[in-house]
Amino acid sequence: MQRYVIIHYHEIALKGRNRPRFERQLLENVLARTEGLGVRAGRRLPGRLVLTLAPDASWRAIRERTETVFGIAYLAHAYRTPLDLDALRDAVVEAVPQEDYETFAIDTKRGNKRFPLKSYEVNADIGAAVETHTGKAVDLDNPDLTVSIEILYKQMFFFFDRVEGPGGLPVGVSGRVACLLSGGIDSPVAVYSILKRGCEAFCVHFHGHPYVTRTSEVKSIELVRQLVRYGASPYLWSVPFGPLQHEVMQRVPEKLRVVVYRRLMARIGQRLAEQDGAAALVTGESLAQVASQTLPNLATIESAVSIPILRPLIAWDKVEIVRQAKAIDTYDISILPGEDCCQLFVPRHPATATTIVEVEEAEGRLDVESLVTRGTETVKRIDVREMSVGAGEMLSALATF
Ligand code: ATP
Ligand code: MG
Fold first, then answer.
1. Low-confidence ranges of the chain (pLDDT < 50)
2. Which pTM value belongs to this model?
3. Counting atoms of ligand 1 from 1, which one is nearest the CA of 340?
């Protein structure tokens, strides 16, 4: 029997005229993720997408890839029949599994209201046939196996196993953002969260080399590699930040340095965002988590730029962030030893309540414009797919430090 994959999304997320755009983007993303896996065609049908599979296509491989595609509520490996009850009955009986379950139920959704039988009548008919054929018992409350039937206008689909998707919106429907990615735990989770809201996202990292080792850059590359699974762009803008910090260190009072670094990062981030078509910055900041993340300091940081700074984790607990980092497989990379440029030339107790006036005054001793230009001109664009020495190997070497 010809096999298909049916993909459902949360229709509630769709407002009227956005729907075709949403569906097209989701289809495009799914096709891109399943390239090479034997998906022959993808179509939009009312309320769902349908992929047609080649005979040798592996449902398991397709499922693994699509599980991380945002916008999918659930998906299923499906079969199709004409709009005919006899054909449906024959096909279900032929395809229904014989093992690994004791009880079953039929769940019919009649999207096509012109179909002559009501859902419960289809349930009863197909249920009786499955019962006779398999000898299994019907259990409507807690079945081991659910046979789902979808009656559409030109055809019917049915399936047995249904896999939950990650929800959210398809990457690409909400515009494009530049994410500031440190080697830490929080920022990858912020990238994940913003991808889930349908943003296209690329990452920018600031490293302290040659003042510190390249560890944070290597970690960031590996983090991007993980985030690509969720739709992040497969490259990293890596900015040599050490020389800029050195300059700051010579002219700015210790307690203001962290905020001045952050403002420089934001400005360079904004420049790269402009060059690479992004409309906002994203950080992993969370209110009051550390000294630089108090309300006054957040205000001081964001006054350095004119595009919005989005902070998806602003109200998350560290515990929640860690849980999410583990769930999306970034945690193990983030906790590897790494030398963060932000630890360079800073006091143990930076100011928690800076004002824009005092920071601007301190920055008056710097040539901010040329520092930003320097950062933008020395930036390197690293394609994470082209790393010939697997960053993974370098990371395991680091782990033994
Ligand atoms: P993270 O776990 O993401 O490192 P954090 O709790 O350590 O966050 P900070 O070090 O204050 O917090 O950084 C706050 C945010 O600033 C980070 O989440 C990230 O978005 C950005 N950031 C900090 N350092 C860097 C860096 N070296 N390169 C790029 N972005 C950075
Ligand atoms: Mg950090």
1. none
2. 0.92
3. 27
